[in-house]
Q: What sequence folds into this?
C-alpha cells in the first residue's frame, strides 16, 4: 500500500453536499461512490441524483432512513438509471418517485459487493484503491461536535447509525487515518470531511463496507 | 430572543459546551480529534440522532481474500 492515497487527487470526487434535515445519508454515500466510479471509467465527473434514490428505493424509508446495501441491491436488480442531480434535484424531504423514459441519460451499476472488513483494514485499503470509494456505516454520535483532527475515541464499533464515503487514507503520520466524505455541508469538520484512525475499526468503519462496479 | 425556543436552544448550546469539554479532556494524545461549536451545537443529542443518524445497519459477510493457487504464486 502507498503511504497516502486519495481519490480527490485524481479529481474524481464530487463536492461535499448537505443533507440538511433529511435522514438520507445512506443515499448520499452510495451516490457519491457511483459518481466517482463513473468518472474513473473515463466519463465526466457528474453529480447524480440523491433525491431519486431517496424517493424510489423501495425497501428504504427516504428521509426517515435507509440502508446502503438495500439501496445498492435495488439499483443492481432493476438496473435503475440514476439521472443527473440537476434533473432531479435534492429537496431535503421524501417525495414521489419520478420515472424517466428509457432513452434519457442515466448511470446504472453493473454490480456491488458488501463485506465486513473488521481486522482487515489493509485489505480494505487495497479494495478502495482497486474499486473506488467505499460506502461505510459508522457510529457517528460523537460527530455532532467534531471540528477536526483524527477521531480515535468516543464512538462504538457496534452501533452503526450513519452512512459516509471513504475516499482515501493517509499513513504518513504517527496515526494513520481514513479520509471520509460526509454529507453535512462544507462548514462541518474538515471542509465536510472527517479523519478516522485506521487499523482499529474505530466507529465500526470496517464493519459494513460497500463498493460499486459500473 | 426571549422566546421559549431561544431559552431551549441556549440551554442546549450550554450543554454542548460541557460536552465539548468532556470529549476534549478525555483524550490526551496529540493528533487526536478536536470538538467544539458547529452547526449542531444547539441541538440535543436526541434531536441530532433522530434527524441525522438514520442509516440502518446490515449484516454483511466477512471479507475473504481471493484464493490464489500455489501454482499461480510460483
A:
Amino acid at each position: 500500500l502507498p503511504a497516502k492515497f486519495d481519490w480527490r487527487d485524481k479529481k474524481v470526487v464530487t463536492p461535499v453536499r448537505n443533507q440538511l434535515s433529511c435522514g438520507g445519508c445512506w443515499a448520499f454515500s452510495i451516490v457519491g461512490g457511483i459518481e466517482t466510479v463513473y468518472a474513473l471509467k473515463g466519463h465526466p465527473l457528474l453529480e447524480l441524483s440523491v433525491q431519486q434514490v431517496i424517493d424510489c428505493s423501495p425497501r428504504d424509508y427516504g428521509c426517515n432512513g435507509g440502508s446502503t446495501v438495500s439501496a445498492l441491491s435495488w439499483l443492481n436488480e432493476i438496473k435503475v438509471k440514476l439521472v443527473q442531480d440537476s434533473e432531479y434535484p435534492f429537496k431535503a424531504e421524501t417525495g414521489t418517485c419520478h420515472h424517466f423514459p428509457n432513452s434519457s441519460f442515466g448511470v446504472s451499476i453493473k454490480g456491488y459487493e458488501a463485506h465486513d472488513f473488521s481486522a482487515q483494514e489493509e485489505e480494505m485499503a487495497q479494495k478502495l484503491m482497486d474499486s473506488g470509494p467505499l460506502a461505510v456505516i459508522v457510529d457517528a454520535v460523537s460527530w455532532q461536535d467534531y471540528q477536526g483532527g483524527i477521531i480515535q475515541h468516543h464512538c462504538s464499533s457496534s452501533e452503526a447509525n450513519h452512512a459516509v464515503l471513504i475516499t482515501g487514507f493517509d499513513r504518513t503520520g504517527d496515526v494513520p487515518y481514513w479520509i471520509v466524505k460526509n454529507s453535512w455541508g462544507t462548514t462541518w469538520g474538515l471542509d465536510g470531511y472527517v479523519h478516522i484512525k485506521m487499523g482499529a475499526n474505530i466507529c465500526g468503519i470496517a464493519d459494513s463496507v460497500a463498493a460499486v462496479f459500473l | 430572543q426571549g422566546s421559549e425556543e431561544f431559552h431551549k436552544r441556549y440551554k442546549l448550546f450550554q450543554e454542548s459546551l460541557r460536552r465539548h469539554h468532556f470529549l476534549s479532556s478525555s483524550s490526551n494524545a496529540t493528533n487526536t480529534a478536536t470538538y467544539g461549536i458547529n452547526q449542531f451545537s444547539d441541538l440535543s443529542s436526541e434531536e441530532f440522532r433522530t434527524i441525522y443518524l438514520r442509516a440502518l445497519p446490515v449484516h454483511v459477510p466477512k471479507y475473504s481474500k481471493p484464493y490464489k493457487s500455489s501454482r499461480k504464486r510460483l
Remarks:
- Helices of chain A lie at 25-40, 50-56, 68-78, 121-131.
- DSSP finds four helices and nine strands in chain A.
- Chain A has a mean pLDDT of 97.
